[in-house]
Write a structure and sequence with these properties.
Layout: E1 2-3, E2 6-9, H1 13-27, E3 38-43, E4 57-58, H2 69-88, E5 93-100, E6 113-116, E7 127-137, H3 139-156, E8 160-165, E9 170-174, E10 177-182, E11 185-189, E12 191-194, E13 215-224, E14 234-238, E15 241-246, E16 251-255, H4 270-283, E17 294-302, E18 309-314, E19 317-321, H5 330-344
Parallel strand pairs: 1-11, 2-3, 2-12, 3-8, 5-14, 12-19
Antiparallel strand pairs: 4-7, 5-7, 6-7, 9-10, 10-11, 13-16, 13-17, 14-15, 15-16, 18-19
Bound molecules: flavin-adenine dinucleotide.
The site of flavin-adenine dinucleotide has 39 residues, from helix 1, strand 3, strand 4, strand 13 and strand 17.
């Protein structure tokens, strides 16, 4: 049994952003004498982090104020992301434009200008709704940057951060501690943070634990490397999907789909992807053929009514899960108050 002061299950964006804010908050504590020494971050060798298999762009073109609390949350978290980028200047986040391929009523979105699409596409005569200040992530670079920042901060606090690949299959409360089981390995800590994405820890929900019901929704998207569409990243909303050009990697992404549970388990959702591909070809006739694209898949997870869950499940057991389609904005809104709650409730003490 390996014993730690705190264990974080998961190594995707929820984990990185929360640890980043936690490290900053601990640096500001007046009394640092009682801080723990050992933190463990677990990652499953089986479940790939969705954060690295995602189209991961962020904006608010579909979120309007005052319509629903979820819409407000999407908007507020985007504002937090923008503030974070402005203040911290992280690696792996780029600003670009979002366009809509169909008309939007001025009454609905007066802030959107209708301008000619300034892209090397062949649909010269079409005008589009346009929103600047859209954000595009290079997820690996961003996660690496965040990790190097929090490790630096934890090192300054003499807290060591350990990493291990282990697929947790059970969590048991044993007195004040939680025992996490993975095959023959067992890990123990009194403070746990679950950022385990689509892993359905809800099936272990113990009586009294507040774990939400989560529904996985895998998604496929197309990826084409080595394509040059200019020096600015952009996204075009076409029908119900997005085309994303990442200028920093010279990549084009189309998608993703939202597969129902148990759908397309062994094969990609080719039908829907082909449809999106053909729709974009309509705007961009020299688009390479469908079979030139790689197909990627990520597993996102949806909470009840699309709300994420963020808070304490049981004494010392915290979670940030159910980010669904907003994984690259929600953590910037939710992590600071979660960290505050964790510190108030003696996480890592
Ligand atoms: C096709 C597609 C497109 C998307 N596009 C966007 C987009 O444009 N914008 C946006 O904001 N969001 C988008 N998303 C959603 C976004 O990618 C996710 O919400 C986000 O990545 C989830 O992050 P996470 O940290 O919660 O989970 P993950 O990144 O999945 O990380 C979970 C971590 O938990 C670990 N783990 C899981 N199970 C176990 C276990 N049993 N034991 C130990 N460790 C475990 C995993 O190994 C991993 O490290 C998209 C998703 C998909 C699939």
């Amino acid at each position: 049994m390996s014993v730690f002061d705190g264990i974080v299950v998961g190594n995707g964006i929820a984990s990185h952003v929360t640890l980043y804010y936690l490290s900053l908050r601990l640096l500001c504590l007046e009394n640092k004498n009682s801080l723990p020494k050992r933190l463990l971050i677990l990652e499953s060798p089986v479940n790939k982090p969705c954060s690295l298999y995602s189209t991961c762009h962020a904006g608010t073109i579909n979120a309007r104020d005052g319509i629903s609390p979820l819409g407000d949350m999407i908007k507020q978290s985007y504002v937090k992301l923008c503030e974070f980028v402005k203040e911290k200047n992280p690696l792996g986040v780029y600003e670009g434009s979002l366009y809509k391929s169909y008309d939007i009523s001025d009454e609905v979105r007066p802030e959107l200008s209708k301008e000619k699409l300034n892209l090397p596409l062949e649909s010269d005569n079409i005008f589009y709704g346009h929103q600047a200040n859209h954000h595009f992530f290079d997820p690996q670079i961003f996660l690496d940057w965040t990790k190097s920042e929090y490790i630096k901060n934890f090192n300054n606090l003499n807290i060591t951060v350990n990493y291990k690949k282990a697929h947790i299959t059970n969590i048991i409360l044993d007195g004040e501690n939680y025992n996490l089981t993975s095959g023959v390995d067992q890990f123990k800590a009194s403070s746990i943070l679950l950022t385990s994405g689509a892993e359905l820890f809800s099936i272990w929900t113990k009586e009294g634990w507040n774990y939400p019901k989560l529904t996985p929704r895998e998604g496929d998207y197309l990826l084409l490397k080595n394509i040059d569409l200019g020096d600015e990243s952009f996204s075009i909303m076409i029908v119900s999907t997005n085309v994303i050009y990442r200028h920093f990697r010279k990549e084009l992404l189309i998608g993703g789909t939202t597969n129902m549970p148990n759908e397309y388990l062994d094969k990609p959702n080719n039908k829907e992807l082909r449809f999106y591909h053909s729709e974009f070809k309509h705007f961009y006739p020299t688009l390479p053929d469908y079979d030139k694209f790689e197909i990627k898949r990520g597993a996102r997870v949806r909470g009840p009514k699309r709300y994420p869950y963020c808070g304490e499940l049981n004494k010392g057991l915290f979670a940030m899960v159910g980010l669904y389609k907003n994984g690259f904005t929600f953590p910037f809104l939710m992590a600071p108050p979660l960290v505050e709650e964790m510190i108030q409730k003696n996480f890592l003490k």
